[in-house]
Amino acid sequence: MGMLTETSQPRAGGAGEDLAAAEQRVVELEAEVARLRDLVRRLERALYGPKSERIIRDLSDQQVFATLLQEVDDLNRALEESEERAAREREALTARTQPKRRRLRRSLDQLIPDSGLPEVTIVIDLPEEEKISAQTGLPLVKIGEDVVRKLAVKPPSYYVQRIVTPRYADPADPRAGVVSAPAPDHAVPGGSFDESFIADVVVNKLAMHLPLYRQEERLRHLGIDIGRQTLSRQYLAAAEVLRPLYARLKDLLIDRGVIFTDDTPVNLQVKGTGKTVTGRMWVYVAGGAGPPWRVFEFTVDRSKKRPKEFLRDYRGYIHADAYKGYDDLFKTDGVFECGCWMHVRRKFFEATDAPTGLREEILEGIRRLFRYERFARSFSGGPDELVMAVRREKIAPLIDRLFARTGKALLGGEVLPASAFGKAIAYMHNLGDALRTFLRDPRLRPDNGESERAIRPLAIGRKNWLFAGSKSGGDATGILLSLVQTCRAMAIDPFVYIEDVLRRINGHPAHRLDELLPGNWQKAESYY
Fold this sequence. Notes:
Distance between the termini: 117 Å
Shape: extended
Largest sheet: 6 strands, mixed
Number of helices: 16
Order of helices and strands: HHHHEEHHHEEEHEHEHHHHHEHH
Number of strands: 8
Radius of gyration: 33 Å
């Protein structure tokens, strides 16, 4: 019996330990299942769900939301009344100017008001012999006409430019030599392509997202046999000619003191292998007062040294996401990190595993933060005093409440640290003071939306031209994209700008280079 007693005790202890381990394993597996379910929900939403991040509320939520709106201060109400008044005015204007569907002429006028398009008249008339009366033999009398106006198009027209420079000599003085007008400065001396053609190649690729192989195909349909390698050489040559403007654009950006930055992957073709590796295209947008410079830089990787090298001499504020590669940059004296509340909101929006009331409370708080910021800037352009007053009285206390509420939810066990919502809270708290930096200076913003919007055209174009053919091709794209997208941000026609600057830059004084930047540029009246 003693032996049985001795052997039974270890078995009981072992069973207890096994049970505890099993229970712990069950908890871990349940947490893993919850994480995977959340991941599946997010993937399904990304693939099949709506792209908007708005919350769909039921009737009770709408009532709660209406109650919250009643508590908004006078600034909030003033803006809402202004928005409603503007909406009514737009509706009234639309009602007055809405074209009748049965009148195509008025409809077309609405589509192209004051466009200055030339009109080509096509007359569809009776044969001359049918304009004679069968009864009297006299000519028919025109009593009116039916007119239909349609918008039409001709394929792009190319032409050969023949530049003639007459030479003159004095027959009375053969030793006087030959005289002629000075030859124009061409972007590519001795080349076969005019600056207008080169500008067309650049803008078609970077603004219209038309890759070179499609441009080659279009030219061939017009009877012009130019291969993509030739087009590529013109593209690279344009970038090299405009490189001084790019360098000056970068200098002015560094001097601004407020910068928004982001990056996106770009495939880089490895020569001789047919394979690609992932490079990066970085964008730096000038904030604050002044032209909205956009400077792009291509790099072969996403190393943390890339932004640090580009911004080597920079001192000021940097709006960026939470990419760790910026950390060394933010350790530099005089460089301050501005966190992005837009990214924070996205984290909470995607975290659907939190209690519904808590999730909507946090999202509503962030939404109100952006509303206050928009309110402050909507009145007379948002004077600095008003912006700072609203931030001090409204936004700063709101941010404090958001941090306190999320910290309480995490520490109080309301959400699990390993959950998606718990990770969103950790993401927000890890940014800490960076999310409050914008409260210091009216030039700053609560988000990094400027750089995300600036890099979006590149993301669209990348789907069409697929990859950079070489490091030099990536560098050229960075140079040209900087000028093209800066033009677009300033409502300047990039084709007109690129053509004009290509014609002038080689003969332009170096000390007056700023005259050719988009913010100062004036189109030349004549080139020849």
